[in-house]
Amino acid sequence: MSLVSAKSMLTDACSGHYAIGHFNLNNMESIRAFLLAAQETHSPIILAVSGGSAAYMGGYRTISHMVEDFMYYLHITVPVALHVDHGSYEQVLQAIEQGFSSVMFDGSSLPIEKNQQLTGEVMQLAQKHGISVEAEVGGIGGEEDGHIARGECADPHHCRLMAELGVDFLAAGIGNIHGKYPADWEGLHFDLLRQIKKEVGALPLVLHGGSNIPDDQIRQAIDFGVCKINVNTECQVAFTEATKRFFAEGKDMQPRGFAPRAMLAPGLEATKQLCIKKMELFGCLGKA
Ligand code: 13P
Q1: Angle in degrees, CA 102, 105, 107, rounded to 5
Q2: 152-153 and 174-176 as β-strands: parallel, antiparallel, unpaired?
Q3: Which residues neighbour 251 within 8 Å (Cβ) at sequence distance 6 or greater?
Q4: Staple 24 to which of 200, 222, 232, 282, CB 3.0 to 4.6 Å?
């Protein structure tokens, strides 16, 4: 099966009241781990690539070839979307040219009018290729106005403007933060999510910063209209912890323990298992 747009995955998720897992690629092991997790559990999946990860892994062309060739090699039959995560205008155009099936244009740091204009241009090009488009409004989570514990919060009116533009799905901050959450994090703001949902109607919403959000908040966010959840940090931590155990248990000193394939295998397996656990929580397990 070749790469697919994420549009119908998300439409099905919204009507079925579950969310699709978006998992960030960071190396070759993560490609294998996520594809195997999706295939073995018959689940649709979104594989995502940040700008930093694209630079590390040889650019969009290399990555799209690697993912498609792994899909062929591993006999992957479930729907897989290959998605640009937080792309600039130039990155999104490059990725479309190189065979990505979904893109996020992140114009959230621009004035809303400019964000709308550039998102609209990306949509025109993407539509010609049958590619889905995610937009973002609002500031990025983390430290903003000294409110680190609050995270990113979008303006519901800006969300409405993006919905009217016709994007396929929208990232709108509701107090979520990329990376590790601070101890005094206030949690997701469900009143804001409800207001945003009222403004955008049927448009699927995306929750970024999906690592380490308590399960009950994830379930509630899905109940309120979130249909795509992005996870990166937690998978990286699982990979690193498993690799640390390999060395702590002295496995590198065993025969052929020095081989990179041997030392990377526990991280790959840990990533795969975490991906399955997250898909179960999101409700997309077995939905392919
Ligand atoms: P985390 O790294 O916090 O899981 O966030 C991932 C993300 O939102 C990618 O866009």
Answers
A1: 165
A2: antiparallel
A3: 257, 262, 263
A4: 232
According to DSSP H, which parts of 111-150 are helical? 112-129
Q: Residue 82: in which H helix or E strand, if any?
A: strand 80-87
pLDDT tens, residue by residue, 11-43: 999 999 999 999 999 999 999 999 999 999 999
Distance CA 220, CA 226 (A): 9
Pocket test of ligand 1: the residue of 211, 212, 240 to mutate, having most ligand atoms within 8 Å of its CB, is 211
Delineate the domains of the chain, giving CATH numbers in brackets.
7-282 (3.20.20.70)
Kindly state the average pLDDT of the residues 201-227: 97
Q: Which residue has the tokens 């244009």?
A: 105
pLDDT digits (tens, 9 = 90+) for 255-282: 999 999 999 999 999 999 999 999 999 9
CB 261 within 8 Å of CB 229: no
- 146, pLDDT greater than 50: no
> To which residue do tokens 């077995």 refer?
286
User: Ligand 1 pocket check: which of 105, 205, 231, 234 to mutate, most ligand atoms within 8 Å of Cβ?
Assistant: 231
- Greatest Cα-to-Cα distance within the chain, rounded to the nearest angstrom: 62
- The set of protein residues with a Cβ atom below 6 angstroms from ligand 1 is 24, 85-86, 178-179, 208-211, 230-234
Nearest to 49 by CA among 61, 40, 37, 33: 61
Active-site positions read: 85
Q: Which of 95, 98, 97, 70 is nearest to 85 (CA)?
A: 95
How many Å lie between the centroid of ligand 1 and the Cα of residue 179? Answer: 6
The single-letter DSSP state of residue 231 is: E
Query: Residue 147 has what pLDDT?
Result: 44
State the residue for tokens 């945003």. 196
Distance from C-alpha of 108 to C-alpha of 141, rounded to nearest angstrom: 11
